[in-house]
Amino acid sequence: MKILIVGGGMGGTILANNLARRLTTELRSGKVRMTMLTASDRHMYQPGLLYLAIGRMTPEELYRDQASLLEPGIDLHVDPAEEFRLDKNEVKTKSGKVHGYDVLAIATGARPTPEEIPGLAENSEQFYTEETAVRMFKRLQAFQGGKIVVAMGVPHKCPMAPLEIIFMMHDYFRDRGILDKVKLHYTYPIGRVHTLENVAKWAAPEMDRLGITYETMFNVKEVDGAKKVVRSEEGSETDYDLLVSIPAHRGMEVIEKNNLGQRGWIPTHRHTLNMEGRSNVFVLGDTTNLPISKAGSTAHFEAEVIGENIAALVRLGAPVREYDGKVFCFIEAGKDRATYAMFDYQNPPQPRAPTRAVHWFKVAYNKLYWASARGLL
Amino acid sequence: MANRKTIDARGSFCPGPLMELIAGMKMIAIGDEIEILSSDKGSANEIPEWLRKAKHEHLGTEEKDGVWHVLARKTH
Hints:
The complex is a heterodimer of chains A (377) and B (76).
Chain A: E1 2-6, H1 10-22, H2 24-29, E2 33-38, E3 42-44, H3 48-53, E4 63-65, H4 66-69, E5 74-78, E6 81-85, E7 90-93, E8 98-100, E9 103-106, E10 110-112, H5 120-123, H6 130-142, E11 146-152, H7 161-176, E12 182-187, H8 197-210, E13 213-215, E14 220-224, E15 229-232, E16 237-239, E17 242-246, E18 249-251, H9 253-257, E19 281-283, H10 296-315, E20 327-332, E21 338-343, H11 356-373
Parallel strand pairs in A: 1-2, 1-9, 2-5, 9-19, 11-12, 11-17, 12-13
Antiparallel strand pairs in A: 3-4, 6-7, 7-8, 10-18, 14-15, 15-16, 20-21
Helix pairs in contact in A: 1-10
Chain B: E1 4-8, H1 17-25, E2 33-38, H2 43-53, E3 57-64, E4 67-73
Parallel strand pairs in B: 1-2
Antiparallel strand pairs in B: 2-4, 3-4
């Protein structure tokens, strides 16, 4: 059986390692062959970008060589997919090579698209790439006072990031001793400060306590860089000295070009994680159109389910498990306190008050991630 | 006749049905409709409230077997 994994991010890497461990015997005997196609020879720990933007991590801490993360038996090609020929069970790559498969997993991820909002890309700082996160840190470092506005598009990767960045900036300026000169203003697309009701119930009074102002039902329509004003779809506007954006995301261009899903999100069955209408194609991570968080933990939990099911297809001829919508997200509540939200399709999260212990667990996870990507955690 | 897109946001706590609707508005043309399915009864209030504020049209809300079907038309 030929297994082809397209994408070497968190989802694809965890899936490949999970399968390599489950199917060691079959990989050794040649009964199973596993190939990974990826766009880069380096693997980025994307949640680290938040810390990079606030000066708590450095760029080199975010990367490992992709090959060093993979179990033996995984045939890695740094040669991204360009053409999906699903009716022929083939994928053609940038170099022109054609890979056939019996089972395909697509984990190509998502990309920020600030350019879709007039004025947003050129007038805001954001932290969704290494380059922009470093630039944002330099802007924060040079900032001596004024109004910072956080504004966002939908959907965005890591739904906790808006809250985390506002609380982390609060502590950053407090530590610099200029908090009295900085006004932090938070905006959010729906009628409360976070989409998770229980998180919003905690975060709104926390913002009140810290002097962070907020406006809800604010979806960014345009940014006027000359006047330093951001306007919303709902008809309001707010001025700023420094605008921090959480850009809306789309799936990857290759998904759109191959007509696999509108705006790059592939229609995916919520329990089997099969691409709709394709029993031998699985989709995971940000690439799905599922109504769940675009977050690393989502990709992780989905990879475990798909790994178990592909191994079962090899050994039993049928899948054995369903994805229940499980997500786990840390929520940094400043520089030294954090909480978390865990939920699935049936059970909403019940976040507790932030503690130092959870923060330090998150800091530890920033290192433990590499064990997680290797499928050890 | 308007095209209608259905978004199944049952069991969605995060990003949640309203966020799914806002994202879905980017995928349809002006005049087209979205039917959003939510298992959260709060959607019956918060989605029409946002539609009013964002000046899109709320065409109706119906509950069937614990699932709220909210129908909206994109107006701009």
